[in-house]
Write the structure tokens for this entry.
Amino acid sequence: MRSRFVWAAVVLLATSAGAAALVSSEPADLPGQVTSRMRTTLEQSDPGQHHHAAHQAATEAQAKAAVICGVRVYGYEPAEATELTDVRTVYGFHLCGVAEPKVPWDVAVKLAGPVILDMSTEPPGVRVVEATADVRFVDRLRQMFPDKYAQLAAKEALTASEMADLRGRYAAAAGI
């Protein structure tokens, strides 16, 4: 009888620990936390907050639709930060789709490009790299990003697995 009680207690503890681990979606490592915060920040903003100059005014359906983002963090400053609260600036890439109901990914409104998050504000400030009438995109990228991150941003976007995850999350949000 006592061994059944002990066995039941062990199973209950293991189940509780597993459930607690599932509830906590925050990654334990700092790079994972930074990536998660970047994605959450972009997904909680409306497309107009991404400040893409070429982006037309959103339709009513687009304004109500979820924004689903894939992100890639190139780095953050200060680089020696050990806690998310110590991170001031994040440099990376974003590809976001506006998940209107039943609209496939291939025709969805998308926002993409190198992005900087200012983590010193709440919510974090978002700046995207865009060309202007006077400054080419690559020159603007070099103005806004430290050299080591600008080199990455000039050649790297999402990996195949990051893209597959993004498309799967988009399909779920769009109800496809």
